[in-house]
Amino acid sequence: xxxxxxxxxDLTDGLVDRLSxxxxxxxxxxxxxxxxxLSGLLGGIAHKGSSIQxxxxxxxxxxxxxxxxxxxxxxxxxFNDDKKTSDYLETGTNLLKSLFGNKKEELIDLxxxxxxxxxxxxxxxxxxxxxxxxKKIAVIVSNHDFEAKALSDFFSxxxxxxxxxxxxxxxxxxxxxxxxxxxxIEGYDKVPEKQNSSLWKWLLPLIIxxxxxxxxxxxxxxxx
Length: 224
What we know:
This protein is mainly α. 79% of the residues lie in helices and 0% in strands.
């Protein structure tokens, strides 16, 4: 099964027209951008899902968002209601965070550069596509009774082709995640040491002067 072509078939002309109105692009420009963003999104999902751990994460995302239900969403109805549209895009944004973590913004940057769009429009397009993609994967999982190993094998077959469709995509997802900035105990220990060291620089001369004063005073009294 070709996952990319299967999802493209679900993006009807009517749906693309409504999305075009939402982002302020022509239908042709929106269609071209969707090709780029869908390829990038699926490349990232396939890369993540090609490992057992990543496949388990995707299965968890499907269950947590109830995307394994038949009545999860009806896009035609959703895009006739501003509130439902906003909620749908928020769901898409949350799915992207769950899938890609801190690489979500890097993915948007890469795809907007390839498409020539700005990040605001690019973010909307990717948030629009994420629920569609995960829903399609949920259907595949349900139809074939996939568990993590089988889903991982499925994505492994799709991975290289999808990553190769967008230059730079493979490099992006092969990089380790950026480490979070955390304060180590060691780091906290060093600050007081510096403060203490600086304090002693001032105290030590004063202590020495005080001792000398005491000694001189005692000698003076002993002379009487």
